[in-house]
## 1
Amino acid sequence: MKIWTSEHTFNHPWETVVQAAWRKYPNPINTAVIGTDVVEREVINGVLHSHRLVSSQWYFPSWVQKIIGTPKVCHASERSTVDTNERQMTLKTTNVTFGSFLSVDEVLQYAPHPTDPSKTLLRQQATVSVEGVPLSRYMEEALTNNISFNASRGRLGLEWVINKINTEVKEIATTADDLLMQTKKSIDGITDTARKSMDELSASKQKIHF
Amino acid sequence: MNSIGENCNELKSKYDQCFNTWFSEKFLKGDKDDTPCKSLFQTYQKCVQEALTLHQIDIKDLKTNHIDGTEFEKKSAYSDSKNKNDNGTSEKES
């Protein structure tokens, strides 16, 4: 069994990062994940529990493929919780495909950074275990390297999604600003028209006086 | 993001859109009532469960993960930087 751990700090608040985490795929950097499906989802005691099926394309080295075969798509089961009181999102993923001899378990945890709560700390851990096939130790090594590589792409992918969300928020703000400007303009227009009518009215009033 | 059932993509996209808005605008702001997207979820579920059967994926009976989420607290990975390389990652064999 091999254990791999990693930490990464996102310079964004927890609320932004967890929104992006749900919208992580598709992203142009980490293209391995080709599908996600929610199979169960419920709020229990204020905590959001979700169960998703994550389908991805795995690119195994050819010698690994010779031993375990090559499925087109690998499936994994992801169970997660989002707790807004604790400000924690935890995702636990385990492989479904090749489950009889291979076990890849991954845990991701997003929480506010302990020394700077305006940032988010991602802690990630994966255990890889291959049993009952030739070269299992080498295979564990190769898979762990794969996970490490994919994790860095995953973080970049998430940053990409965060930027996208921030741009959307800005766009909404700009649209709101535009709307406000337009409203202001039309109100100004109405005021102008009203003023003109008032002027005209007083002009005609004056005329009457004359 | 696509669904495992090609015919579920549209239902999934409608549900996802509802969920993302609900998550940002309601759940994160303290409103935990999850009824707003329930009917879209149920329609999408009907489709996806059929697709799972078709692909012979039995996800309900899956084992739960070996790693417990509290593992992080026990190890307090943040304060323990001794075994790390420059990327903030570490590997060990057992």
## 2
Amino acid sequence: MTTPAPPLENLPNVADTLQITRAQRILRGLWTAPLSAKLGLLIILVYVFVALFAPWIAPFGESEIVGKKYLPWGEEYFLGTDNLGRDMLTRLVYGARNTVGIALVTTVYAFVLGGTLGIIAAVLGGWIDQLLSRMVDVLMAIPALIFAMLLLSIFGTSVLSLILIIGLLDATRIFRITRAVSLNVVVMDFVEAARLRGEKLAWITLREILPSISAPLAAEFGIRFCFVFLTISALSFLGLGIQPPTADWGSMVRDTADLITFEDYTPLIPAAAIALLTIGVNFVVDWFLHQTSGLKDEL
Amino acid sequence: MNNIATMLLQRISLGLLTLFIVSLIIFLGVSMLPGDAAQAILGQAATPDTVAALRKQLGLDLPAHLRYINWLGGILQGDFGTSIGNGREISEVIGIRFANTIFLAAFAACISIPLSLLLGILAALYRNSIYDRTVNVVTLSSISTPEFFVAYILILFVSVKAGWFPSLSNIQGETGFLERLNKTFLPAVTLTLVSVAYMMRMTRAAIINLLSQSYIEMATLKGIRNPRIIIRHALPNAWAPIVNVIVLNLAYLIVGVVVVEVVFVYPGLGQLLVDAVQRRDMPVVQACCLIFAVTYVTLNLIADILSILTNPRLLHPK
Amino acid sequence: MSSDTPTSNEILLEVSGLKIEGYSEGRWHQIVKGVDFTLRRGEILGLIGESGAGKSTIGVAAMGYAKPGCRISAGSVRFDGIELTTASEEQKRQLRGARIAYVAQSAAASFNPAHKLIDQFSETVVQHGIGSREQAYADAKALYAKIRMPEPDLIGFRYPHQVSGGQLQRAMTAMALSCRPDLIIFDEPTTALDVTTQIEVLATIKDIVRQFNTAAIYITHDLAVVAQMADRIKVLRYGESVEESETRQMLDDPQQDYTKSLWAVRSFRKTEKPPLPETVPLLHIENVTASYARSLDPVLIDIDFEIHRRETVAIVGESGSGKSTTARVITGLLSPSQGRVVFDGVELPADYRNRSRAQLQQVQMIYQMADTAINPHQRIRDIIGRPLSFYLNMEGEAKKRRLRELMEMIELDPDQYLDRYPEELSGGQKQRICIARAIAAEPKLIICDEVTSALDQLVAEGILRLLDRLQQELDLAYMFITHDLATVKAIADRVVVMLQGRIVEQGAKEEIFSPPHHEYTELLLSSVPEMDPDWMQRVIEERRSKSGMESAGN
């Protein structure tokens, strides 16, 4: 040693003045979030509340026939009745539970399936990755809605087959994105360092890779949920999704569609309920992406 | 050029392979069903003898791989089999239905492609401006909206209340071109509204990525005028992303027609498919799915090929 | 030369009180805080500073240009009597390319991939109405010939990706000259190049700027480079001017402490000490040949060298020489097709997955980019603590104590840093964390892969000193992969020179650095810029006379 190293780089840096925890940062981010994100969050909270407390909020039973068909909006039946004489408001409230619930279960299932396989493909590489990727390529070569209709016509239109089929098809998209973001992490030197240290694959996956991909995957969850939600609604609207008598927004539009020619807004209400939730989720996801990527010009 | 030829050949053979596997899936999926077409056509009351006779006539008694070859061979010659629902030749209806669907998708594309390219380029050029932020919120909302919501809003306001355009698109073979345009206007606008947002966002991202390249800054520092920078420096490198956006959008439109066709009772392939699925008319389902899948795969293949053909690095190999 | 021209004293560019702001995290920050300088016709000013000094920002501001996300907030930039801060866009456009030209750091990214080199050359000429396309073509060919480009009549008709990096950078210099500007801004034009390519580009730039009596601003972080190029040097730090004077005076007699410390960086030499007694070498790479796939050509051919205890072996070579691949073979990430790796007399399994935990523990690695070498989602405590529990089964109090010791060894305050995330640390601090993680495993050999090349010189020197001290204390052996010969001189005991996957020469540092050299070593050594302003002229003349003699002999 000649002279001791000048501790130039030990000078206090910007980080010292900005030393705050992640939780604080997220809270601060929420406070300064744009109006659209706050609105989105509020929408989601309202939907969750309605879904959880549906039986207490709804004035009637889910598939109870309460009056004549197509009654107009009024005091007794706030949004009128549908083609069988069921209360629209009640069906709308229960729809939050059914439609959103089924979409959520499907998305979770798709994530567990696609996400796990995506990480496995990225970490293991080699022929496993090749096999999984080619299978996904083929599944994705058929447009999702068309494929879903094919499979539904084969397996029948029950809620279970709906969840399994839509989940499987959506899992292919999740597989792709999980594999892509994991691959970005797998090539990092810190993963190589862990491999060379002799760490087991499980440790590398759970401790090194998962924390790095959780933010983009969280955003992806929002996006995929919207997609699944819209697909299920579209199928229900076509009469191929959630089946009666379960209250569901897509089939509610279908059931009351004829009213539109009489300048009646009723069929627009469940459709708006679908749109509003998706918009809310997208607003939050959009803000979240900006927050985590630090990029101002992302999609 | 050899390099490019190999790449193109690779893509095309990969596309063909994909189509083969897709046809296999569509065929095998359906043959997994309990019961068969003969039983379905004749109904439960039919005697085993007549069912067996029809099975033989339809070739259903053959092993699966032979049936597949017969099926595929028939399709390649334009024979899609017989509908279980009405016993008619599928090829009689499917051609017109497909043409109608293409007409609607093309109509929508004619509006949505120029519109979204324009909006996307403007948003990229005036990025982070009020315009950009407004467009961001509006497009996010319209991406989030189900097609039938947009469709019914249009029907309510433009058709029922204002009476400007018909809400039913019941076109037929003899419908004239102008009337056809008039009747398909609302479905086309619906498709435009739901697809513009997606395409416009892709355009914006592609242009922003392009404008951040060093050679664009270099052109500015060489004292080149802005219009020339766009035309001479940005555009030659923008073809690949733009073509990609356009073709993917076409693919999206072709598939997106299903819901819109049902809402407007438009006699297209999508409507045919939905009816067939409800009636579990499997030969028709197979035929429609195959046509949709082939169109989709082909469009994606075209996007791939065009992006290879417009890449200067590949066009001028070392 | 420039002093002979009558206009030499005329002031071309005058920058005063220049302040530039950059936008980040929702507000404007000052990144250039009031800088002044003047430039006369035909004069070359060197702007030198470490990252964050604002030198590039100042460079393009001389064209009246602010990079995206930046704005010129105060001060004046007068070019030949025109005030650029208030000039209209059209006025500035007419100047850019025609009277002030720009040469960017990455020619590969700054040439448009869709157009031929010569078209990009002629575009400036035609667009500024200076000449026709045919005239520009002829001029381009003449210039290409003047800067000794191969096939000067044809090379312009190639696309950028068809030309090598060094040639591309020279073509960009030629393009900057297309309108015979009064001023050229060179923004780190050789930073991305290998050292043997760099000298050619530097010679081209210097030649051509002198020949056409063009004024230039030369921006770099490399002192030796700026010593060759500039008439005057201005030292910048954190967006402020530190000092400015004639090149020779600045080199011989810097006034400010910061400048002195920059100048002193290259004086560091490792502590010499007697070798440890040993019977077998710590590591022996025996005749290793390796390729990335069986069908591909080998990237390593017959590599054979030893590393001894408490010794630093530097592996030197340019990009593509196979030096990092050698490290991959040693760590077991790439299995050799021939040969073996023997550690402490025992052959290591070729694949790291077949090595025992104890074997893995013996060889640790430090990477070039500390940013990607440590997981941004783990606290420092967990990053350094993992090898302790993994290899040494250390937990609880013992682990806590050891963590504090390790932090003190790398000269970081344990109380302040142990519970932080990497993103809260500076680049040099992160590299120290990587060092701590490596020594936590208590290895015998550490592979250092370009560990200082992403760091500023002062910070890099701190890292080298730290590594040297740790070697003394812990009897570590280092394998030091680097392209930077200054680092080799500072830290190596022995040197292995690699070229295209082969070892061309190896031996003790003194041997390698004193003649006679192997031909390639000679080229490599003579291409490293020295702080002497006459160095480049001398080397170029020597090389030309030599090649002249050779061709005369043939």
